[in-house]
From TrEMBL:
It comes from the Bacteria. Keywords: FAD, Flavoprotein, Oxidoreductase. This is Mitomycin radical oxidase. GO terms for molecular function: FAD binding; oxidoreductase activity. The lineage of its organism: Bacteria, Pseudomonadati, Myxococcota, Myxococcia, Myxococcales. InterPro entries: FAD-bd_PCMH (IPR016166), FAD-bd_PCMH-like_sf (IPR036318), FAD-bd_PCMH_sub1 (IPR016167), FAD-bd_PCMH_sub2 (IPR016169), FAD-linked_Oxidoreductase (IPR050416), Oxid_FAD_bind_N (IPR006094), Oxy_OxRdtase_FAD_BS (IPR006093).
Amino acid sequence: MTQSLASRVSGPVYTPNDAGYAPESAGFNVVVTHSPQYVVAVKSTQDVAEAIRFARENHLPVSVQATGHGTDVPITSGVLLSTKALNHVSIDPATRIATIGAGARWEPVIAEAAKHGLAPIAGSSTNVGVVGYLLGGGIGPLVRSHGVSSDYVVGYTLVTCDGETVEATAEQHPDLFWGLRGGKSGFGIVTEVKVQLVELRSLYAGSLFFEEQHIEAVLRGWVKWTPEADARVSTSIAVMRFPPFDFIPPPLRGRTVINLRFAYPGSVEEGAKFAAPLRALAPLYLDMLGELPATQMARIHNDPDQPSPVWTSGMMLTHVDQDFATTLLRHVGAGAQTPYFMLELRHLGGACQKDVAGGSAVGGRNGNFLVGLVGMHPPLFETVLPGATEGLRAELKPWLSPEMSINFLGKARDAEHFDSAWPDAIRAKLKEVRGKYDPHKLFAAK
């Protein structure tokens, strides 16, 4: 069977005993090891189509991976399509549209767009794969000023369960296009995406760091400030407990800090004015906020860019207030014992709550805040972190939203948990669209 598959594709095919199997199937989360029957390093849309046909003929499930971000569950059977080689990026400055292969990360897209004074509405990490991020909607550092990242998608190239290549746009297969903008998975394999860019050369952005003893003052001050925040200003706040490892920059190594992230796509003068109340919340430890070229947007969040052990989870909130702050401080305040490396609160609202013409499958538009939880110590992944999170969720019940962003859900316990990321109407329509384009359930919808 291996020879049969290899004869149908131009990219290499690996089985578990091959030297290239492990590196080709490796993802960003080093605690997750995939072990499918076949790994196909596709080099074209045609390769994807042939691999899917092979899988159908042999009753094998199909999975896909590009950069491997967001991978929480090992793939243990079937055919894994690695799209790393589909990393092409091209910019049409006349139409302001970027054409991006399924294996590309945000970093080269940002670099190419910047040559024309343009930028994509990307995620907080430019190391993340473009397609996987966009399929989940995408809540990035400009979410309040520019909205959800998938709102800027104008077309997808996708291979269906029958091995047929379709173009999904607002005019062609509009139901599929609707689902791909936020519905995450279960439709087919995306090989290329076209994204509308915006004019943006620089912004006033970066982050402020405050020492551990100021966590309460900064958290309470930020909670008080958010209702009056300008709709063009996007912020988040994160309590971070850095381990004493050599790869951590000396100013943060072994320290607990509260990090306030800030992004305003406008002038330095206006940005500084908007940031002034936040700078004054407590004595600053590090001030890394100022004019930032669009090519350096990754410096706002400073997410890790090397594979590491990681556990994530999240929840969405309808609102925050001082009672919420009191509850949260019991978990992450100065001196509190917590299993989390980071607990982040992202302020939503603004342009995030405005859906695109024709609608989209993005979940969580009506939430006003997003809680992101990150663990990095593997012995805590199976029981301690999930248990702590359930306890935190119970305490935060008065503020919880019934919606969620699928990209922040973390490890889906089951299909029901996966589906909980969308409100009822979107969830029902997603089931219909998935059933139409993948009636055989060849692609797992999680």
